[in-house]
Amino acid sequence: MTHHELTLGLVLAGGLARRMGGGDKPMRVIAGRSMLTRVIDRIAPQCDTLVLNANGDTARFAAFGLPVVVDSVADFPGPLAGILAGLDWAAQHRPDIRWILSAPGDCPFLPRDLAASLHRARSTENAELAVASSAGQTHPVVGLWNVALRHDLRHALMNEQLRQVGRFMARYRLATVNWPTAPVDPFFNANTADDLAEAERLALLDDKG
């Protein structure tokens, strides 16, 4: 690890993958390895501990040997609920950790300096949150979260029915870190069958990097 702050890695693995016909999208295989395996391989060395967020039968993730946290907010309201679950897990099980690095389980090419760069930016800018961007686009689900914000997030989800990650982030001092997209956009995510084919091609480039 190249940063000084204790950090929990939270991989959001519970998407419904409707555009792929259902099922666990992060379990789809590209270039011989599941997307989830690739995400874990990228995130784990950057964090002090790692957990998965997913709903349904958590036994399907048993092979990864990681804690699986489920949403505490009903009806699958989206990634904010998963982030809240991770924040609550940290508060209960790792009270020494103040920061969570969140990332979706279908972004197989995440930067190897993700945690360090986000921490550096939020420290330099005295920010409460930090978020990744590339090619002029912010990626709100790839971010650094302060565990102390969990009560605000719970209120936003349960009392305001807030669902957009970006709208919640906009309420706080936010640092944004931009990454280059060559040779591979590190925040490419696979949403469709065509994306999986493109991911196969990109994986060959990324694995050489």
Please specify the SSE layout and strand pairing.
Blueprint: E1 7-12, E2 29-30, E3 33-34, H1 35-43, E4 49-53, E5 68-69, H2 79-93, E6 99-104, H3 114-124, E7 129-134, E8 137-146, H4 150-159, H5 165-169, E9 174-179, H6 193-208
Parallel strand pairs: 1-4, 1-6, 4-5, 7-9
Antiparallel strand pairs: 2-3, 6-8, 7-8
Please tell me about this protein's structure:
The chain has 209 residues and is an alpha/beta fold. It is built from six helices and nine strands; from the N terminus they run E-E-E-H-E-E-H-E-H-E-E-H-H-E-H. The strands form two sheets. A seven-stranded mixed sheet has the order 5-4-1-6-8-7-9, with helices on both faces.
Question: What attributes characterize this protein structure?
Answer:
two-stranded antiparallel sheet; globular; Spore Coat Polysaccharide Biosynthesis Protein SpsA, Chain A; seven-stranded mixed β-sheet; 32% helix; alpha/beta; 209 residues
